[in-house]
Design a protein that fits this description.
The protein is mostly helical. It is built from 8 helices and 2 strands, in the order H-E-H-H-H-H-H-E-H-H. Strands 1-2 form a two-stranded antiparallel sheet.
Amino acid sequence: MTVREAAAVSEQRDALTELVQQYVGVGKRWSTRDFSEIAVDPKTKWTPSKSLVGKIIKGDGYAITPKLVSALAVGLGVPRDVVAAAAHFQVIGYAESELAVGAPATLIHRLDAPPGDAPKSRAVAERWDQEG
C-alpha cells in the first residue's frame, strides 16, 4: 500500500479530548477541579492540574503521556486501553480496518461519532446498533 492509499483509508480525530469532554466541564458530571482530584495515575500518584484538564476540554494543545492516559482512565472510569486508543487516535490515527475491533472499536462506540465527521467510524457504530 502506498502512503497515499494509507492516508485515504485512515482517520484521525481529537478522540481523547472528545472522551474527556463527555464527562468534564460546565454542566457535565465533573468540574475541572473535581476531575483533577479524582484522576490519579495509580502507579505514580500523579494527577493532572485543573489547568491541564481545562486545556484538554478546550481542545488546546497538551502533551499526551502514559501517566496522563492512566490518570484519565481512572478519573473517567474507563478501561485504560480505551483511553490509550483515544490518545492513539488523536495523535496518530487509525486505519479503517483497525477501527472495527478491540479498544478502538469500543472507543468509537463511546464517542458515538456525529454524522459527517467520521463516516467509516460511524458505519462501525451503526453496525453495532443493528446487531445489538
